[in-house]
Amino acid sequence: MAEADRYHENDFAQDDFERFHEQGEAEEGSAEDRALFEQYLAEEEEIGMPERGELREGIIVEVRPNELLVNIGAKRDGIVPQSDLTRLDKEFVASLKEGATVPVVVSKLTADEGMLVLSIADALQQKDWQRAEEMLASGEIGTYPVIGYNKGGLLVRFGHLRGFIPASHVVGLPRNLSEEERNRRLEALIGQVIPAKVIEVDRRRRRLVLSQRLAEREYRAQRKAELFERLRPGDIITGVVRSLRPFGAFVDIGGADGLLHVSEIGWTPVSHPRDVLQVGQEIQVEILRMDPERQRIALSRKRLLPNPWESIEERYQPGQTILVTITRVVDFGAFAQLEPGVEGLIHVSELADIDVAEPLKTVEPGDRVPVKILRVDSRRQRIGLSRRQADPVVGQRLLEEEAQRAQKPLEPAESPPPPAAAEGSSPPPEPPSAPEAQEGPDEPEPPETPETDEAVTSPVAGTETMPKAEEAMAPDPETENASSEDTSTMAEVSPAPLSMEVEQGGSSDESE
Protein backbone atom coordinates (compact mmCIF):
# COMPACT_ATOMS: atom_id res chain seq x y z
CA MET A 1 0.00 0.00 0.00
CA ALA A 2 2.75 2.28 0.95
CA GLU A 3 4.58 1.38 -2.25
CA ALA A 4 1.45 2.13 -4.27
CA ASP A 5 1.15 5.54 -2.66
CA ARG A 6 4.77 6.28 -3.39
CA TYR A 7 4.24 5.23 -6.96
CA HIS A 8 1.31 7.61 -7.34
CA GLU A 9 3.23 10.45 -5.74
CA ASN A 10 6.07 9.93 -8.14
CA ASP A 11 3.62 10.04 -11.05
CA PHE A 12 2.15 13.29 -9.85
CA ALA A 13 5.60 14.77 -9.39
CA GLN A 14 6.61 13.69 -12.86
CA ASP A 15 3.47 15.23 -14.30
CA ASP A 16 4.07 18.49 -12.46
CA PHE A 17 7.64 18.56 -13.69
CA GLU A 18 6.61 17.97 -17.27
CA ARG A 19 3.81 20.51 -17.01
CA PHE A 20 6.15 23.06 -15.49
CA HIS A 21 8.76 22.31 -18.10
CA GLU A 22 6.24 22.78 -20.91
CA GLN A 23 4.99 26.01 -19.37
CA GLY A 24 8.53 27.27 -19.09
CA GLU A 25 9.24 26.44 -22.69
CA ALA A 26 6.03 28.20 -23.73
CA GLU A 27 6.95 31.26 -21.71
CA GLU A 28 10.46 31.17 -23.14
CA GLY A 29 9.07 30.87 -26.70
CA SER A 30 6.68 33.75 -26.21
CA ALA A 31 9.54 35.94 -24.98
CA GLU A 32 11.55 35.16 -28.09
CA ASP A 33 8.56 35.89 -30.31
CA ARG A 34 7.98 39.13 -28.48
CA ALA A 35 11.59 40.13 -28.96
CA LEU A 36 11.42 39.30 -32.65
CA PHE A 37 8.18 41.23 -33.02
CA GLU A 38 9.63 44.26 -31.31
CA GLN A 39 12.70 44.02 -33.53
CA TYR A 40 10.46 43.85 -36.60
CA LEU A 41 8.53 46.88 -35.45
CA ALA A 42 11.72 48.79 -34.87
CA GLU A 43 13.06 47.88 -38.31
CA GLU A 44 9.76 48.83 -39.91
CA GLU A 45 9.86 52.17 -38.17
CA GLU A 46 13.42 52.72 -39.35
CA ILE A 47 12.50 51.77 -42.92
CA GLY A 48 9.27 53.73 -42.96
CA MET A 49 10.64 57.05 -41.66
CA PRO A 50 12.86 58.72 -44.33
CA GLU A 51 15.86 60.84 -43.59
CA ARG A 52 16.21 64.49 -44.49
CA GLY A 53 17.45 64.99 -48.05
CA GLU A 54 16.50 61.45 -49.07
CA LEU A 55 15.19 61.00 -52.63
CA ARG A 56 12.03 58.93 -52.97
CA GLU A 57 9.21 58.21 -55.35
CA GLY A 58 5.77 59.28 -54.17
CA ILE A 59 2.17 59.06 -55.33
CA ILE A 60 -0.02 62.16 -55.32
CA VAL A 61 -2.96 61.47 -53.00
CA GLU A 62 -4.69 64.83 -53.17
CA VAL A 63 -4.26 68.06 -55.09
CA ARG A 64 -5.09 70.99 -52.83
CA PRO A 65 -5.32 74.66 -53.80
CA ASN A 66 -1.95 75.57 -52.25
CA GLU A 67 -0.21 72.23 -51.79
CA LEU A 68 -0.01 68.58 -52.77
CA LEU A 69 -0.53 65.55 -50.49
CA VAL A 70 1.92 62.78 -51.41
CA ASN A 71 2.24 59.22 -50.09
CA ILE A 72 5.89 58.13 -49.96
CA GLY A 73 5.30 54.74 -48.27
CA ALA A 74 6.01 55.91 -44.70
CA LYS A 75 3.72 55.98 -41.67
CA ARG A 76 2.98 59.58 -42.48
CA ASP A 77 2.09 61.32 -45.74
CA GLY A 78 4.02 64.32 -46.93
CA ILE A 79 2.99 67.69 -48.30
CA VAL A 80 4.55 69.71 -51.14
CA PRO A 81 4.01 73.39 -50.21
CA GLN A 82 3.12 76.20 -52.59
CA SER A 83 6.59 77.72 -52.19
CA ASP A 84 8.06 74.63 -53.83
CA LEU A 85 5.50 74.52 -56.63
CA THR A 86 6.39 78.09 -57.65
CA ARG A 87 9.93 76.90 -58.43
CA LEU A 88 8.56 74.57 -61.11
CA ASP A 89 7.40 75.30 -64.62
CA LYS A 90 3.74 76.23 -64.83
CA GLU A 91 3.09 73.59 -67.46
CA PHE A 92 4.65 70.91 -65.28
CA VAL A 93 2.59 71.97 -62.25
CA ALA A 94 -0.58 71.93 -64.33
CA SER A 95 0.15 68.33 -65.36
CA LEU A 96 0.27 67.04 -61.75
CA LYS A 97 -2.85 64.97 -61.07
CA GLU A 98 -4.01 62.57 -58.35
CA GLY A 99 -2.42 59.16 -58.74
CA ALA A 100 0.63 60.51 -60.60
CA THR A 101 4.08 59.34 -59.49
CA VAL A 102 6.55 62.12 -58.75
CA PRO A 103 10.08 62.24 -57.31
CA VAL A 104 10.32 64.01 -53.95
CA VAL A 105 13.00 64.93 -51.45
CA VAL A 106 12.33 65.14 -47.70
CA SER A 107 12.92 68.76 -46.66
CA LYS A 108 11.72 68.49 -43.04
CA LEU A 109 10.93 65.48 -40.86
CA THR A 110 7.93 67.03 -39.13
CA ALA A 111 5.45 69.81 -39.63
CA ASP A 112 2.80 71.54 -37.54
CA GLU A 113 0.17 69.02 -38.62
CA GLY A 114 2.52 66.09 -38.08
CA MET A 115 3.27 65.57 -41.77
CA LEU A 116 6.53 65.48 -43.69
CA VAL A 117 7.53 68.47 -45.84
CA LEU A 118 8.58 67.38 -49.32
CA SER A 119 10.11 69.10 -52.36
CA ILE A 120 9.58 68.14 -55.99
CA ALA A 121 11.92 70.86 -57.30
CA ASP A 122 14.85 69.59 -55.22
CA ALA A 123 14.08 66.02 -56.31
CA LEU A 124 14.14 66.97 -60.00
CA GLN A 125 17.42 68.83 -59.54
CA GLN A 126 18.89 65.88 -57.68
CA LYS A 127 17.94 63.62 -60.56
CA ASP A 128 19.58 66.08 -62.98
CA TRP A 129 22.76 66.04 -60.89
CA GLN A 130 22.82 62.26 -61.11
CA ARG A 131 22.29 62.46 -64.87
CA ALA A 132 25.09 65.01 -65.20
CA GLU A 133 27.48 62.74 -63.31
CA GLU A 134 26.55 59.85 -65.59
CA MET A 135 27.12 61.97 -68.71
CA LEU A 136 30.48 63.12 -67.36
CA ALA A 137 31.54 59.51 -66.88
CA SER A 138 30.27 58.32 -70.27
CA GLY A 139 31.24 61.40 -72.35
CA GLU A 140 27.73 61.63 -73.80
CA ILE A 141 26.88 64.77 -75.80
CA GLY A 142 23.53 66.51 -75.35
CA THR A 143 21.74 69.57 -76.71
CA TYR A 144 20.69 72.43 -74.45
CA PRO A 145 18.88 75.77 -74.95
CA VAL A 146 20.78 78.98 -74.23
CA ILE A 147 18.91 81.01 -71.59
CA GLY A 148 21.37 83.85 -70.92
CA TYR A 149 24.95 85.01 -70.68
CA ASN A 150 27.33 86.84 -68.38
CA LYS A 151 30.82 88.28 -68.68
CA GLY A 152 32.31 84.77 -68.49
CA GLY A 153 30.22 82.90 -71.05
CA LEU A 154 26.82 81.33 -71.75
CA LEU A 155 24.12 79.97 -69.45
CA VAL A 156 22.20 76.88 -70.64
CA ARG A 157 19.28 74.92 -69.22
CA PHE A 158 20.26 71.42 -68.13
CA GLY A 159 16.93 69.94 -67.14
CA HIS A 160 16.07 71.84 -63.94
CA LEU A 161 19.65 73.04 -63.46
CA ARG A 162 21.68 75.84 -64.95
CA GLY A 163 24.83 74.92 -66.76
CA PHE A 164 27.69 77.25 -67.65
CA ILE A 165 29.74 77.29 -70.87
CA PRO A 166 32.91 79.41 -70.60
CA ALA A 167 33.52 81.89 -73.42
CA SER A 168 36.66 79.96 -74.38
CA HIS A 169 34.49 76.90 -75.03
CA VAL A 170 31.94 78.72 -77.21
CA VAL A 171 32.26 78.02 -80.93
CA GLY A 172 32.78 81.05 -83.18
CA LEU A 173 33.81 83.46 -80.42
CA PRO A 174 37.38 84.76 -81.02
CA ARG A 175 39.39 85.84 -78.02
CA ASN A 176 40.48 89.19 -79.45
CA LEU A 177 36.96 90.66 -79.56
CA SER A 178 36.05 93.79 -77.64
CA GLU A 179 33.73 93.41 -74.68
CA GLU A 180 30.88 95.08 -76.56
CA GLU A 181 31.26 92.84 -79.60
CA ARG A 182 31.58 89.72 -77.46
CA ASN A 183 28.41 90.55 -75.52
CA ARG A 184 26.59 91.21 -78.78
CA ARG A 185 27.55 87.77 -80.12
CA LEU A 186 26.66 86.03 -76.87
CA GLU A 187 23.28 87.74 -76.77
CA ALA A 188 22.58 86.62 -80.32
CA LEU A 189 22.85 82.98 -79.15
CA ILE A 190 20.02 83.28 -76.60
CA GLY A 191 17.18 80.98 -77.59
CA GLN A 192 19.32 78.71 -79.75
CA VAL A 193 19.78 75.02 -78.95
CA ILE A 194 23.45 74.07 -79.05
CA PRO A 195 25.34 70.80 -78.49
CA ALA A 196 27.54 70.61 -75.40
CA LYS A 197 29.55 68.09 -73.40
CA VAL A 198 29.72 67.93 -69.58
CA ILE A 199 33.29 68.57 -68.42
CA GLU A 200 32.84 69.29 -64.68
CA VAL A 201 30.25 68.40 -61.99
CA ASP A 202 30.48 69.62 -58.37
CA ARG A 203 27.18 69.09 -56.60
CA ARG A 204 28.36 70.56 -53.31
CA ARG A 205 29.37 73.84 -54.95
CA ARG A 206 26.46 73.57 -57.39
CA ARG A 207 28.89 73.83 -60.29
CA LEU A 208 28.00 72.36 -63.68
CA VAL A 209 30.37 73.24 -66.56
CA LEU A 210 29.93 72.25 -70.21
CA SER A 211 31.87 72.74 -73.44
CA GLN A 212 30.38 73.48 -76.82
CA ARG A 213 33.76 73.36 -78.54
CA LEU A 214 34.53 69.79 -77.44
CA ALA A 215 31.04 68.66 -78.35
CA GLU A 216 31.27 70.36 -81.73
CA ARG A 217 34.62 68.73 -82.38
CA GLU A 218 33.34 65.24 -81.63
CA TYR A 219 30.06 65.83 -83.41
CA ARG A 220 31.81 67.06 -86.53
CA ALA A 221 34.19 64.13 -86.48
CA GLN A 222 31.20 61.78 -86.55
CA ARG A 223 29.39 63.81 -89.20
CA LYS A 224 32.53 64.02 -91.34
CA ALA A 225 32.85 60.25 -91.34
CA GLU A 226 29.23 60.01 -92.48
CA LEU A 227 29.76 62.65 -95.19
CA PHE A 228 32.81 60.85 -96.56
CA GLU A 229 30.65 57.78 -97.04
CA ARG A 230 27.75 59.67 -98.62
CA LEU A 231 29.28 62.48 -100.72
CA ARG A 232 31.28 62.21 -103.94
CA PRO A 233 33.33 64.76 -105.97
CA GLY A 234 31.01 66.70 -108.25
CA ASP A 235 28.07 66.75 -105.82
CA ILE A 236 26.41 70.15 -105.32
CA ILE A 237 25.32 70.97 -101.77
CA THR A 238 24.28 73.99 -99.72
CA GLY A 239 26.52 75.18 -96.91
CA VAL A 240 26.91 78.04 -94.43
CA VAL A 241 30.05 80.17 -94.18
CA ARG A 242 31.51 79.63 -90.69
CA SER A 243 34.76 81.60 -90.79
CA LEU A 244 36.90 83.67 -93.17
CA ARG A 245 40.68 83.50 -93.57
CA PRO A 246 43.04 85.26 -96.02
CA PHE A 247 43.47 81.99 -97.93
CA GLY A 248 39.77 81.09 -98.13
CA ALA A 249 36.53 80.39 -96.28
CA PHE A 250 35.44 77.42 -94.16
CA VAL A 251 31.94 76.28 -95.08
CA ASP A 252 29.73 74.03 -92.96
CA ILE A 253 28.22 71.44 -95.31
CA GLY A 254 26.10 69.61 -92.77
CA GLY A 255 28.19 68.89 -89.70
CA ALA A 256 31.63 69.02 -91.32
CA ASP A 257 33.71 71.91 -92.61
CA GLY A 258 35.06 72.15 -96.14
CA LEU A 259 37.62 74.64 -97.43
CA LEU A 260 36.56 77.07 -100.15
CA HIS A 261 39.90 78.38 -101.41
CA VAL A 262 40.13 82.05 -102.36
CA SER A 263 40.79 81.05 -105.99
CA GLU A 264 37.52 79.06 -106.08
CA ILE A 265 35.23 81.80 -104.75
CA GLY A 266 34.55 83.36 -108.16
CA TRP A 267 35.96 84.04 -111.60
CA THR A 268 36.92 87.58 -110.59
CA PRO A 269 40.18 87.72 -108.57
CA VAL A 270 39.46 88.10 -104.86
CA SER A 271 42.03 89.69 -102.56
CA HIS A 272 40.22 88.56 -99.37
CA PRO A 273 37.12 86.36 -98.95
CA ARG A 274 35.38 89.05 -96.86
CA ASP A 275 35.08 91.15 -100.03
CA VAL A 276 32.58 88.61 -101.40
CA LEU A 277 31.32 86.45 -98.50
CA GLN A 278 30.01 87.00 -94.98
CA VAL A 279 29.98 84.74 -91.93
CA GLY A 280 26.59 83.04 -91.71
CA GLN A 281 25.88 83.43 -95.44
CA GLU A 282 24.26 80.44 -97.14
CA ILE A 283 25.89 79.48 -100.44
CA GLN A 284 25.90 76.61 -102.91
CA VAL A 285 29.20 74.81 -103.49
CA GLU A 286 30.50 71.87 -105.48
CA ILE A 287 32.66 69.11 -104.02
CA LEU A 288 36.06 69.24 -105.71
CA ARG A 289 38.15 66.72 -103.78
CA MET A 290 37.79 64.50 -100.73
CA ASP A 291 40.72 63.12 -98.72
CA PRO A 292 39.48 60.58 -96.14
CA GLU A 293 42.96 59.99 -94.73
CA ARG A 294 43.62 63.66 -94.00
CA GLN A 295 39.92 64.35 -93.35
CA ARG A 296 39.80 67.27 -95.78
CA ILE A 297 37.14 68.43 -98.23
CA ALA A 298 37.84 70.95 -101.02
CA LEU A 299 34.94 73.06 -102.31
CA SER A 300 34.32 75.38 -105.25
CA ARG A 301 31.81 78.15 -105.76
CA LYS A 302 33.32 79.35 -109.01
CA ARG A 303 32.28 76.28 -110.97
CA LEU A 304 28.62 76.99 -110.31
CA LEU A 305 28.90 80.51 -111.78
CA PRO A 306 28.84 81.33 -115.53
CA ASN A 307 32.30 80.84 -117.05
CA PRO A 308 33.37 84.00 -118.95
CA TRP A 309 36.08 82.03 -120.78
CA GLU A 310 33.62 79.83 -122.67
CA SER A 311 33.01 82.38 -125.46
CA ILE A 312 36.14 84.47 -125.00
CA GLU A 313 37.37 83.93 -128.58
CA GLU A 314 34.13 85.37 -129.94
CA ARG A 315 34.52 88.59 -127.98
CA TYR A 316 38.27 89.16 -128.35
CA GLN A 317 40.48 88.58 -131.39
CA PRO A 318 44.25 88.95 -131.86
CA GLY A 319 45.22 92.38 -133.23
CA GLN A 320 42.33 94.15 -131.53
CA THR A 321 43.09 97.28 -129.46
CA ILE A 322 41.05 97.52 -126.26
CA LEU A 323 41.10 99.23 -122.87
CA VAL A 324 42.10 97.21 -119.82
CA THR A 325 42.57 97.84 -116.09
CA ILE A 326 45.90 97.02 -114.45
CA THR A 327 45.26 94.71 -111.48
CA ARG A 328 48.73 93.53 -110.42
CA VAL A 329 52.32 94.45 -111.23
CA VAL A 330 54.82 91.60 -110.86
CA ASP A 331 58.48 91.09 -111.74
CA PHE A 332 57.76 89.66 -115.19
CA GLY A 333 55.01 92.08 -116.21
CA ALA A 334 51.54 93.28 -115.30
CA PHE A 335 48.17 91.53 -115.14
CA ALA A 336 45.26 93.41 -116.66
CA GLN A 337 41.51 92.79 -116.43
CA LEU A 338 39.58 92.80 -119.67
CA GLU A 339 36.23 92.15 -117.95
CA PRO A 340 35.14 90.65 -114.62
CA GLY A 341 36.69 87.19 -114.46
CA VAL A 342 39.00 87.59 -117.47
CA GLU A 343 42.61 88.68 -117.04
CA GLY A 344 45.52 88.87 -119.46
CA LEU A 345 49.26 89.31 -119.05
CA ILE A 346 51.29 92.23 -120.38
CA HIS A 347 54.85 90.92 -120.42
CA VAL A 348 57.52 93.28 -119.18
CA SER A 349 58.92 93.44 -122.71
CA GLU A 350 55.52 94.65 -123.98
CA LEU A 351 54.89 97.33 -121.34
CA ALA A 352 56.89 100.14 -122.92
CA ASP A 353 59.35 100.93 -125.66
CA ILE A 354 62.88 99.61 -125.46
CA ASP A 355 64.35 102.99 -124.52
CA VAL A 356 62.36 103.01 -121.24
CA ALA A 357 64.71 102.00 -118.43
CA GLU A 358 62.12 100.73 -115.92
CA PRO A 359 58.94 99.67 -117.76
CA LEU A 360 57.32 98.24 -114.61
CA LYS A 361 57.11 101.75 -113.15
CA THR A 362 55.07 103.04 -116.08
CA VAL A 363 51.86 101.40 -114.81
CA GLU A 364 50.17 100.99 -111.44
CA PRO A 365 47.18 98.91 -110.25
CA GLY A 366 43.98 100.68 -111.25
CA ASP A 367 45.36 102.35 -114.39
CA ARG A 368 43.25 102.23 -117.56
CA VAL A 369 45.54 101.66 -120.53
CA PRO A 370 45.04 100.69 -124.18
CA VAL A 371 46.58 97.37 -125.21
CA LYS A 372 46.76 95.17 -128.26
CA ILE A 373 45.62 91.55 -128.04
CA LEU A 374 48.45 89.26 -129.13
CA ARG A 375 46.90 85.82 -128.55
CA VAL A 376 43.85 84.19 -126.96
CA ASP A 377 43.91 80.65 -125.53
CA SER A 378 40.49 79.76 -124.11
CA ARG A 379 41.52 76.23 -123.18
CA ARG A 380 44.37 77.34 -120.93
CA GLN A 381 42.56 80.58 -120.05
CA ARG A 382 45.46 82.73 -121.17
CA ILE A 383 45.48 86.07 -123.02
CA GLY A 384 48.68 87.77 -124.15
CA LEU A 385 48.59 91.58 -124.30
CA SER A 386 50.93 94.36 -125.44
CA ARG A 387 50.82 97.97 -124.37
CA ARG A 388 53.76 98.88 -126.59
CA GLN A 389 52.06 97.68 -129.80
CA ALA A 390 48.63 99.20 -129.12
CA ASP A 391 47.31 101.55 -131.83
CA PRO A 392 47.73 105.04 -130.33
CA VAL A 393 44.91 106.60 -132.38
CA VAL A 394 42.40 103.89 -131.43
CA GLY A 395 43.60 103.92 -127.85
CA GLN A 396 43.17 107.70 -127.56
CA ARG A 397 39.71 107.49 -129.08
CA LEU A 398 38.68 104.74 -126.65
CA LEU A 399 39.92 106.78 -123.69
CA GLU A 400 38.04 109.88 -124.85
CA GLU A 401 34.84 107.93 -125.42
CA GLU A 402 35.13 106.39 -121.97
CA ALA A 403 35.68 109.84 -120.46
CA GLN A 404 32.60 111.16 -122.24
CA ARG A 405 30.49 108.26 -121.00
CA ALA A 406 31.70 108.93 -117.47
CA GLN A 407 30.80 112.65 -117.73
CA LYS A 408 27.40 112.31 -119.41
CA PRO A 409 25.47 111.53 -116.20
CA LEU A 410 26.91 114.71 -114.66
CA GLU A 411 25.83 117.12 -117.44
CA PRO A 412 22.12 117.40 -116.48
CA ALA A 413 23.06 118.25 -112.90
CA GLU A 414 25.51 120.99 -113.95
CA SER A 415 23.32 122.60 -116.63
CA PRO A 416 19.61 121.87 -116.54
CA PRO A 417 18.92 124.15 -119.59
CA PRO A 418 19.50 122.81 -123.15
CA PRO A 419 23.13 122.06 -124.08
CA ALA A 420 23.22 125.05 -126.46
CA ALA A 421 22.59 127.50 -123.65
CA ALA A 422 25.33 125.90 -121.55
CA GLU A 423 27.82 126.13 -124.41
CA GLY A 424 26.84 129.74 -125.02
CA SER A 425 28.06 130.65 -121.53
CA SER A 426 31.57 129.27 -122.18
CA PRO A 427 34.44 131.81 -122.41
CA PRO A 428 35.42 131.62 -126.14
CA PRO A 429 32.58 133.26 -128.17
CA GLU A 430 34.51 133.66 -131.48
CA PRO A 431 33.26 130.58 -133.38
CA PRO A 432 29.58 131.68 -133.27
CA SER A 433 30.37 135.24 -134.39
CA ALA A 434 32.33 134.22 -137.48
CA PRO A 435 29.42 132.61 -139.33
CA GLU A 436 27.24 135.63 -138.55
CA ALA A 437 29.75 137.93 -140.16
CA GLN A 438 30.03 135.70 -143.21
CA GLU A 439 26.33 136.07 -143.95
CA GLY A 440 27.11 139.70 -144.87
CA PRO A 441 29.15 140.95 -147.77
CA ASP A 442 31.67 138.15 -148.56
CA GLU A 443 30.15 135.16 -150.28
CA PRO A 444 33.35 133.04 -150.61
CA GLU A 445 34.05 133.07 -146.87
CA PRO A 446 31.35 130.60 -145.62
CA PRO A 447 33.05 127.50 -147.12
CA GLU A 448 36.24 128.32 -145.20
CA THR A 449 34.51 128.57 -141.85
CA PRO A 450 33.11 125.02 -141.79
CA GLU A 451 36.52 123.72 -142.82
CA THR A 452 38.08 125.56 -139.91
CA ASP A 453 35.49 124.21 -137.50
CA GLU A 454 36.02 120.68 -138.71
CA ALA A 455 39.77 121.03 -138.19
CA VAL A 456 39.23 122.16 -134.63
CA THR A 457 36.73 119.50 -133.62
CA SER A 458 38.02 116.47 -135.54
CA PRO A 459 40.13 114.90 -132.71
CA VAL A 460 37.00 113.98 -130.76
CA ALA A 461 34.96 111.46 -132.67
CA GLY A 462 31.24 112.02 -132.80
CA THR A 463 31.38 115.75 -131.90
CA GLU A 464 31.77 117.35 -135.37
CA THR A 465 28.12 118.37 -135.63
CA MET A 466 27.85 119.88 -132.15
CA PRO A 467 29.66 123.19 -132.91
CA LYS A 468 27.52 123.66 -136.05
CA ALA A 469 24.29 123.33 -134.09
CA GLU A 470 25.58 125.75 -131.49
CA GLU A 471 26.59 128.24 -134.18
CA ALA A 472 23.04 128.19 -135.54
CA MET A 473 21.62 129.03 -132.12
CA ALA A 474 24.30 131.27 -130.59
CA PRO A 475 24.60 134.23 -133.02
CA ASP A 476 21.47 136.03 -131.75
CA PRO A 477 23.05 137.64 -128.65
CA GLU A 478 26.19 138.50 -130.61
CA THR A 479 24.11 140.07 -133.34
CA GLU A 480 22.26 142.19 -130.82
CA ASN A 481 25.52 143.38 -129.24
CA ALA A 482 27.02 144.17 -132.61
CA SER A 483 23.96 145.96 -134.05
CA SER A 484 25.58 149.38 -133.67
CA GLU A 485 28.73 148.34 -135.57
CA ASP A 486 29.19 148.28 -139.29
CA THR A 487 28.76 144.84 -140.77
CA SER A 488 31.36 145.57 -143.39
CA THR A 489 33.92 146.27 -140.67
CA MET A 490 33.14 142.95 -139.04
CA ALA A 491 33.59 141.23 -142.36
CA GLU A 492 37.01 142.80 -142.74
CA VAL A 493 38.20 141.93 -139.24
CA SER A 494 36.86 138.44 -138.69
CA PRO A 495 38.17 136.53 -141.70
CA ALA A 496 41.78 137.30 -140.90
CA PRO A 497 42.19 135.16 -137.73
CA LEU A 498 40.07 132.39 -139.24
CA SER A 499 42.26 132.10 -142.27
CA MET A 500 45.32 132.01 -140.02
CA GLU A 501 43.86 129.06 -138.19
CA VAL A 502 43.47 127.17 -141.40
CA GLU A 503 46.84 127.96 -142.80
CA GLN A 504 49.00 127.93 -139.70
CA GLY A 505 47.01 125.60 -137.45
CA GLY A 506 47.04 128.25 -134.72
CA SER A 507 44.42 128.94 -132.04
CA SER A 508 41.94 131.76 -131.69
CA ASP A 509 43.94 133.13 -128.78
CA GLU A 510 46.98 133.64 -131.08
CA SER A 511 44.80 135.48 -133.61
CA GLU A 512 43.56 137.87 -130.99
Keywords:
OB fold (Dihydrolipoamide Acetyltransferase, E2P); 20 strands; 5 domains; five-stranded mixed beta barrel; 512 residues
- State the total count of DSSP E strands: 20
**What's the number of structural domains?**
5
Q: So how many helices?
A: 17
Q: Could you tell me the strand content as a percent range? A: 25-35%
Structural class: alpha+beta
Structure explained in plain terms:
The chain is of the alpha+beta class. It has five domains: 55-125, Nucleic acid-binding proteins (OB fold (Dihydrolipoamide Acetyltransferase, E2P), Beta Barrel); 139-216, Beta Barrel (OB fold (Dihydrolipoamide Acetyltransferase, E2P)); 231-304, Beta Barrel (OB fold (Dihydrolipoamide Acetyltransferase, E2P)), CATH 2.40.50; 312-399, Nucleic acid-binding proteins (OB fold (Dihydrolipoamide Acetyltransferase, E2P)); 429-511, no CATH class. 38% of the residues lie in helices and 27% in strands. The protein has helices at residues 2-48, 82-85, 90-94, 120-138, 179-188, 212-230, 312-315, 392-407, 411-414, 419-424, 430-438, 445-457, 465-473, 475-481, 487-493, 495-504, 508-511, and strands at residues 55-63, 67-71, 78-81, 101-108, 116-119, 141-150, 153-158, 161-166, 193-202, 207-211, 236-245, 248-252, 257-261, 282-291, 296-300, 321-330, 333-339, 342-347, 368-377, 382-386. The strands form four sheets. It has a five-stranded mixed beta barrel with strand order 1-2-3-5-4. The protein has a five-stranded antiparallel β-sheet with strand order 8-7-6-9-10. A five-stranded mixed barrel has the order 11-12-13-15-14.
